[in-house]
Design goal:
Elements: H1 2-32, H2 34-45, E1 46-51, E2 58-59, E3 65-77, H3 85-96, H4 100-107, E4 114-120, H5 122-131, E5 136-145, E6 158-159, E7 165-166, H6 168-172, H7 174-177, E8 182-187, E9 201-203, E10 210-213, H8 217-233, E11 238-244, E12 251-257, H9 270-273, H10 276-279, H11 289-298, E13 307-310, E14 313-316, E15 319-322, E16 330-333, H12 334-340, H13 343-353, H14 355-364, H15 393-399, H16 409-420, E17 424-426, E18 431-436, E19 439-442, E20 447-450, H17 454-470, E21 483-493, E22 498-512, E23 519-526, H18 534-552, H19 559-566
Parallel strand pairs: 2-10
Antiparallel strand pairs: 1-8, 2-3, 3-4, 3-5, 6-7, 8-9, 10-18, 11-12, 11-23, 13-16, 14-15, 17-20, 18-19, 21-22, 22-23
Length: 568
C-alpha cells in the first residue's frame, strides 16, 4: 500500500511539473515572445509580392503611339510534374516560337522550375491555359511594345526583361518612364500557394510619365521610305536621314539603316543598338567647308568675292592638298570655293584664318563635345588642336575640308543649322512634353551660344544658295530656295594607316526656304556602289525628301523661286 501511494505521488508530481512547464511556456509564448511569434506566423502564411508599375507611353508630336506597355504572359514549367513531354513539346513549340528540341530538353530536365517563354501574347497564353496541363504555369506580365518598330529605331531604344530602358529615349528617360512599384500581401497555404480567400493588402503602383516627342510620325515615314529607296538605288551599305528645325533645335525625324526590331531586341547584335546619328563618329568631308567658310567670313579674313589663284594643289608642312577633280581652276572667289567644293580653297581659308581662330570656331560650333541632346549614349566626336600631342600643322589644311576630324551627324546638322538660324547655335532635343498625373511639363528651345554674327550667317546662306543653283542642281526643290553643301568623304582604315581606295561616305546637308529656314535635312549614304559623290548620291535623296516635306508641312514657297517656277 505504501508503495502504491509513493507511485501515485510521483506520478502526480510529474504531471504537476509538466503542467507547470507547459503553463510557463504558454506564458512565455503569449506575453514574452508573442509579438515575434505572431510575426513569424504572418511571414509563414503570407507573401509579399512586388507589383510592377505601368511604364509610361511614348507618343509622336502628332499623337501617334510609338511605345507602350502591353499585357502578356510568361510561360513556365515544373518538369517534375510533367508527363508526356514529347507530345506536350509538339503542341507548345509552334505557339511559343521555341525550338522543339529545346522544349523537350527543358520539360525532361527534372528541375523544380524551368522558364519556357516570355512576352507570350494574350490569345496564345489563354489557349495554353485552356489545355489545363499539369506542370505548365502562366504568369501575367507587362511587355514593351513598339507599333512602329524599325521606323523609329534606333531613336527610341528598348526595354529589357528587367524593365530597364536602354539607348535612345527609353534609356535617357528611364527614371521618368518607369514609375514606382507597388506591393500586395496575401495569405498562402501550406504548399505556398496563394489562399483564394486570404486577406489581400495592396499598395498601388505609380505609373510612369508619358512622353510626347518632337518627332512627327508623318516626317518619320517619309524619310524612312526615302532612305530605303536611296540605299537600294545606290546599292549602299548603310545610311541615315536627319530632319531638324533650325530655329528651335527640335528633331522632327531621324532614321538609320540597318536597324533592329525593338520588340525582339535580343535577336539583334549589340552593335546595332547604338544610334549612328549620335553614337558613331565619321569624317564629314566637304560639308565641313560650311564651317571653314563661316570662320573665314566672320573673322573678316575673306568675303564672298575674295579671290585666290587655284593651281589645283596646296602645300603645307605635313600635307599636300589636291582638289577632288585634280584640276586647277585659276582665279576663283570664295563663292566658287563652295560651289566647286575646292579642297585647296578651304585650306587657303583655314590657313589664312590661323589655327587658334579656326579651332575656336570649330569648338564654338559644337564639335568635339556632346550636343546635350536628350538621347542616351551620345559621343563627343574628336577635334585635334595645337598642343594636344596629336595635332600636326597639316591638320589645319585637311580639317578645313572635313578630313582628319570626327563628328556625329547630329553635331554636323546642328552646326549648319546655326548658320540657318542667323548664327545662333541651338541645343537639339527630342522630348517636347512630359505628362504625369494630368500635369504637363513642356520643354522649351534652348540657345547655346551665338557662334557667328547674323550678318555673316546671312551672307553664307546666300553663298550656299548660289552653290546649289550653280553646281548641285540635283538638290534643287521647285518653288523653294535651297541653301546646302555636298560632302564626299574618304573612309579611314586605322589598321592600315590610310584611307579606303574606293569606298566613300556621300552626304548632303541643306535647309529651306533659305530666306526663312523651317527645316534642315542631312542625308548620309555609306559606301554607295552605284555612284560615289555627294552630288550624285545624297543630293537627289535630299531633293525627294525636301519636296515631300515641303508639301506635308505646308512650307511657304520662296517668292523668287516661285516666280521662276511659274515662268513659261
Amino acid at each position: 500500500m505504501e508503495e502504491f501511494r509513493r507511485r501515485v505521488y510521483l506520478v502526480a508530481t510529474g504531471v504537476a511539473l509538466m503542467a507547470g512547464a507547459v503553463l510557463l511556456q504558454l506564458v512565455r509564448w503569449q506575453l514574452v515572445e508573442g509579438a515575434e511569434l505572431a510575426a513569424q506566423a504572418e511571414r509563414a502564411h503570407s507573401r509579399m509580392r512586388v507589383v510592377e508599375p505601368a511604364r509610361g507611353s511614348i507618343y509622336s508630336l502628332d499623337g501617334a503611339l510609338l511605345a507602350c506597355d502591353s499585357p502578356a504572359y510568361a510561360v513556365g514549367a515544373a518538369p517534375r510534374e510533367i508527363s508526356g513531354a514529347q507530345e506536350l513539346a509538339d503542341r507548345l513549340f509552334p505557339l511559343l516560337g521555341v525550338r522543339r528540341q529545346d522544349l523537350v530538353s527543358w520539360l525532361t530536365s527534372g528541375r523544380a522550375w524551368q522558364p519556357l517563354a516570355y512576352d507570350v501574347p494574350l490569345p496564345i497564353g489563354d489557349e495554353i491555359a485552356r489545355w489545363n496541363v499539369r506542370g505548365i504555369y502562366l504568369e501575367p506580365m507587362l511587355t514593351r511594345a513598339y507599333p512602329a518598330a524599325e521606323v523609329v529605331e534606333p531613336l527610341l531604344g528598348f526595354v529589357n526583361r528587367a524593365r530597364e530602358g536602354y539607348y535612345g529615349v527609353e534609356g535617357y528617360y528611364d527614371g521618368v518612364l518607369r514609375g514606382e512599384p507597388g506591393a500586395t500581401l496575401g495569405d498562402v497555404d501550406a504548399a505556398g500557394n496563394t489562399a483564394p480567400f486570404g486577406q489581400i493588402m495592396v499598395e498601388p503602383p505609380k505609373p510612369g510619365a508619358d512622353l510626347y516627342l518632337t518627332i512627327d510620325s508623318r516626317v518619320q515615314h517619309v524619310i524612312w521610305e526615302e532612305l530605303r529607296r536611296g540605299l537600294e538605288k545606290f546599292k549602299a551599305e548603310s545610311g541615315l536621314i536627319l530632319v531638324v528645325q533650325p530655329r528651335t533645335g527640335a528633331i522632327l525625324g531621324a532614321v538609320a539603316w540597318p536597324s533592329y526590331d525593338p520588340n525582339r531586341y535580343e535577336t539583334a547584335t549589340p552593335d546595332s543598338y547604338a544610334d549612328p546619328i549620335i553614337s558613331k563618329e565619321y569624317e564629314p568631308g566637304s560639308v565641313f567647308k560650311v564651317i571653314t567658310m563661316a570662320a573665314g567670313l566672320d573673322s573678316g579674313v575673306v568675303t564672298p568675292d575674295s579671290t585666290y589663284e587655284d593651281t589645283g594643289r596646296f602645300s603645307i608642312p605635313g600635307a599636300e592638298i589636291y582638289n577632288w577633280d585634280r584640276r586647277a581652276h585659276g582665279l576663283v572667289t570664295m563663292t566658287d570655293v563652295l560651289a566647286l567644293s575646292l579642297n585647296t580653297g578651304a585650306a587657303h581659308v583655314s590657313t589664312t584664318v590661323g589655327a587658334e581662330r579656326f579651332y575656336s570656331y570649330a569648338l564654338a560650333f559644337g564639335f568635339g563635345q556632346p550636343t546635350g541632346v536628350d538621347l542616351q549614349y551620345e559621343v563627343a566626336g574628336s577635334v585635334k588642336r595645337p598642343g594636344d600631342g596629336r595635332w600636326y600643322p597639316g591638320d589645319l589644311a585637311t580639317n578645313a575640308y572635313g578630313q582628319g576630324i570626327a563628328v556625329t551627324p547630329l553635331q554636323m546638322a546642328m552646326a549648319v543649322a546655326a548658320v540657318a538660324n542667323d548664327g545662333l547655335l541651338m541645343q537639339p532635343y527630342v522630348v517636347r512634353a512630359t505628362v504625369r498625373d494630368g500635369q504637363v511639363q513642356v520643354a522649351h528651345p534652348r540657345a547655346v551660344r551665338q557662334v557667328i554674327s547674323p550678318e555673316t550667317a546671312r551672307t553664307l546662306t546666300r553663298m550656299l544658295v548660289t552653290a546649289v543653283e550653280r553646281e548641285t542642281t540635283a538638290a534643287k526643290v521647285p518653288g523653294f530656295s535651297v541653301a546646302g553643301k555636298t560632302g564626299t568623304a574618304q573612309i579611314p582604315m586605322p589598321e592600315a594607316g590610310t584611307y579606303h581606295p574606293s569606298d566613300t561616305i556621300a552626304s548632303f546637308v541643306g535647309y529651306l526656304p533659305a530666306e526663312d529656314p523651317r527645316i534642315l535635312i542631312l542625308v548620309r549614304i555609306d559606301r554607295p556602289q552605284a555612284g560615289m559623290w555627294g552630288s550624285q548620291v545624297a543630293a537627289p535623296i535630299f531633293q525627294r525628301v525636301a519636296s515631300r516635306l515641303a508639301v506635308l508641312l505646308g512650307l511657304q514657297p520662296s517668292p523668287a523661286s516661285l516666280a521662276e517656277a511659274v515662268q513659261p
